[in-house]
Design a protein that fits this description.
The chain is of the alpha/beta class. The protein folds into three domains: about 240 residues, P-loop containing nucleotide triphosphate hydrolases (Rossmann fold); about 70 residues, no CATH class; about 230 residues, P-loop containing nucleotide triphosphate hydrolases (Rossmann fold, 3-Layer(aba) Sandwich), CATH 3.40.50.300. Helix content is about 35%, strand content about 20%. A hairpin with a 2-residue loop joins β4 and β5. α4 packs across α5, α4 runs parallel beside α6 and α15 runs parallel beside α17. The longest helix has 17 residues.
């Protein structure tokens, strides 16, 4: 038996009520002490495969499974997840799905206690794990008081406390701000350097992860292994396959491929912002960046803004979450709200959209006080997408979920059917129309949640982390859709931790920290204000990081957007 070894042989998994297998005939082995990144388009079975490694599929999640999973040389078929958890720890995509106790310390102690370890050993493990993720000082608090990112760090701490040789992480930084991402990967780096863990990582945030990865396995749309190699092999020689599949690439790799296509001799392909900046600075000359092409939104003081927030204060459980925030959103704006975890971003946009009723006289949509609007009127004016899609599902089928808002507006059933069919087609959900929303994959749930917000045709769309859980193809499709809607007059407000996304799509940026608005203005100005970003605990977008230190090509120092890179239009189309 080799400690930390994993072997997957011809594994096929089909969830109950599904007609297709995903993954479908997947085989690979994990070398002990290495970090393997598992990539693939939405619906390829990445998360399902991860759950099969600790027996939750099919023990807790009903599914047919064929093939063999060997953990340290032993077939896990027929073994309970509790037994397998002594060798394999899992960090789920949604941290709330694995939090079961009432305090942070108890949560991390829970696993080791179930191993029947002595009390001193349990507490020592818990303290070490909580210190690693920066939560030791909050150990007496309830997990409910943590932000989404804090809950994810708690989930990682609980996994670390199990001291297993195999660690499986499914989107571990999806809800984290830049500081939290850096903290998590600092922890993972320490684990990797000890050589004591085999890590399988499912991750979209490749810019943070790529330095730690030894190997990349890519699944195709049917959940079969299509590429397997080192990161540089996969992202360079295999980039055409990745683009065709709609899989994420590191931003530095995307930029490097564009610049190489424009004639710059970038070899090897840069995979990190540091590598990209160093490669460009070493060249004797580079072409000038492409001028920014983004329409400016200028508020007319004589025109009522579409959305007006006036000295908004939100108090919950005696805690003041927002401290007198004021901002206006003119018609046609594409505003991104950014800030660290716990800053109050979600609270702010929920109040904007009336999801959480704001105090009277503090939020207005088209001149109407949101606190006084009924549900029918509110849904006709504002579409809202939750950070967790499941928080907004209220019906039994995908089609009914899309139809619900239209039925509130009392539209004819024939028109409802036509709109629902069109939205199912647009988001690739036609085959799932009669399934329960909870049975969809993470990416499919996200697309459905966005579809429910779009289908009513509201003039204002408010979205909380809309690209979370999406592969590159679906995320690009969604963002292109939002951009097109914006250009047609729909006003967009979006919360995102992805500052590259913000740089590429938003007209304006609002920076929120500690419940206060630190700044708001045009994207180029806000994202270039390093002092402002630093005060908010944020980092510039990856491209801005890459170009900020260029000595030989200073004209590039202010570039933060992908569409400012030279490259053929045809390349940009294939990239998305």
């Amino acid at each position: 038996m080799t400690s930390g070894s994993v072997e997957v042989r011809d594994v096929r998994i089909r969830h109950d009520e599904n007609e297709y297998w995903a993954p479908n005939g997947t085989s690979f082995s994990l070398t002990p002490g290495t970090v393997t990144l598992l990539l693939g388009p939405s619906g390829s079975g990445k998360s399902t495969l991860a759950l099969s490694l600790n027996g939750l599929v099919p023990d807790a999640i009903a599914a047919d499974i064929e093939g063999t999973v060997l953990i340290e040389g032993k077939d896990i078929a027929g073994r309970a997840p509790g037994q397998i958890s002594e060798r394999v720890s899992m960090v789920f995509q949604d941290p709330e799905a694995q939090i079961v106790t009432s305090t942070i310390l108890d949560e991390v102690c829970f696993g080791p206690e179930n191993l029947q370890l002595p009390v001193d050993a349990v507490l020592a493990r818990a303290e070490r794990a909580l210190r690693q993720v920066g939560l030791w000082e909050r150990r007496a608090e309830t997990p409910d008081r943590l932000s989404g990112g804090g809950k994810q760090r708690l989930a990682i701490a609980a996994a670390l406390a199990m001291a297993t040789p195999i660690l499986v992480l499914d989107e571990p930084t999806a809800n984290l701000d830049p500081a939290g991402i850096a903290e998590v990967y600092s922890v993972l780096k320490d684990l990797v350097e000890t050589g004591g863990h085999t890590v399988l990582l499912i991750e979209h945030n490749l810019d943070a992860a790529i330095d730690l990865v030894d190997r990349v396995i890519v699944l195709d749309g049917q959940g079969r292994v299509t590429l397997d190699g080192t990161p540089r092999e996969i992202f360079d020689a295999g980039h055409q396959t990745l683009l065709r599949l709609g899989v994420w690439l590191p931003i530095a790799a995307i930029a490097g491929l564009r610049l190489r296509r424009a004639g710059l001799p970038l070899d090897p392909l840069p995979l990190t912002p540091h590598e990209l900046g160093a490669a460009l600075d070493a060249l004797p000359s580079v072409p000038d960046p492409v001028p920014a092409d983004r329409h400016a939104i200028v508020a007319d003081p004589d025109v009522t803004p579409l959305l007006d927030v006036r000295a908004l204060r939100v108090v919950r459980r005696r805690d003041e979450l927002l401290h007198g925030v004021s901002l206006s959103v003119p018609r046609g704006d594409f505003l991104a709200v950014v800030g660290p975890n716990g800053a109050g971003k979600t609270t702010l946009i929920q109040a904007m959209a009336g999801v959480v009723r704001p105090p009277r006289g503090q939020v207005f949509v088209q001149g109407k006080d949101v606190s006084r609007m009924d549900v029918r009127d509110l849904t006709a004016q504002v579409g809202f997408v939750f950070q967790n899609p499941e928080h907004q599902f209220i019906t039994g089928t995908v089609a009914d979920e899309l139809a619900h808002g239209l039925r509130l507006q009392r539209l004819p059933e024939s028109e409802i059917t036509e709109r629902v069919d069109a939205m199912l087609e647009r988001f690739g959900l036609t085959a799932q129309r009669d399934r329960h929303p909870y049975l969809l994959s993470g990416g499919q749930k996200r697309r459905l949640s966005v579809g429910t917000a779009l289908i009513t045709g509201a003039p204002l769309l408010v979205l909380d982390e809309p690209t979370f859980g999406q592969d590159r193809s679906r995320a690009a499709e969604l963002l292109a859709l939002l951009r097109d809607l914006n250009r047609q007059g729909t006003t967009i407000v979006v919360v995102s931790h992805d500052l590259q996304l913000v740089a590429d799509y938003a007209n304006r940026v609002a920076v929120v920290a500690d419940g206060s608005l630190l700044g708001i203005g045009p994207s180029e100005e806000i994202l270039a204000d390093t002092d402002l970003l630093q005060r908010a605990g944020l980092l510039p977008p990856p491209l801005a990081q890459a170009f900020a230190g260029l000595e030989h090509h200073p004209i590039w120092r202010s570039v933060a957007r992908l569409d400012q890179l030279p490259g053929a239009e045809g390349w940009r189309n294939r990239e998305h």
